[in-house]
Design brief:
6 strands, alpha+beta, 144 residues, rod-shaped, two-stranded antiparallel sheet
Length: 144
């Protein structure tokens, strides 16, 4: 007698969950939402600190640029002093920075802060004309 060849195994149809148990539970979904919220909060804090540091660095660099402009102006023969017309008016830090923001020309050399300093209240000015220097005071909050 001939033996019959074994029949090939058939793949079983996939077993599906009943509709009552399919998907994620409410607790799992809430856990994912809370985790995304925690990650988002960390990113928000990091970006906020980074942008504040960028503002501080920009203002410190602006103070350096103001000092370089004063040196260039002094070397070209500009008038640096209180009430200096069409030159650096050192009556106050605000007027001195306004003079450099507006700009002027000395012996054909333009002296101008570009881009202009928008918040002079956070800067300090020391020294006596013609040797003045600017600094940045991070404790003054003049942000818009």
């Amino acid at each position: 007698m001939k033996s019959a060849a074994p029949s090939p195994r058939r793949a079983q149809p996939p077993v599906f969950c009943s509709p009552a148990t399919a998907g994620f539970s409410l607790v799992e979904l809430l856990g994912v939402i809370v985790l995304i919220g925690i990650i988002s909060l960390g990113a928000y804090i990091y970006v906020g600190n980074a942008s504040q540091q960028a503002i501080t660095n920009t203002k410190a660099r602006n103070a350096q640029m103001l000092n370089q402009l004063v040196s260039i102006a002094a070397a070209t023969g500009a008038t640096i002093g209180s009430g200096g017309a069409n030159n650096i008016d050192t009556t106050s830090v605000t007027t001195a920075i306004a003079s450099l923001n507006t700009g002027f020309t000395v012996n054909g050399i333009p002296i101008k802060m570009n881009p202009p300093v928008g918040t002079p209240a956070s800067y300090t000015m020391s020294g006596t004309p013609p040797t003045i220097s600017f600094g940045y005071n991070p404790s003054v909050t003049d942000l818009p």
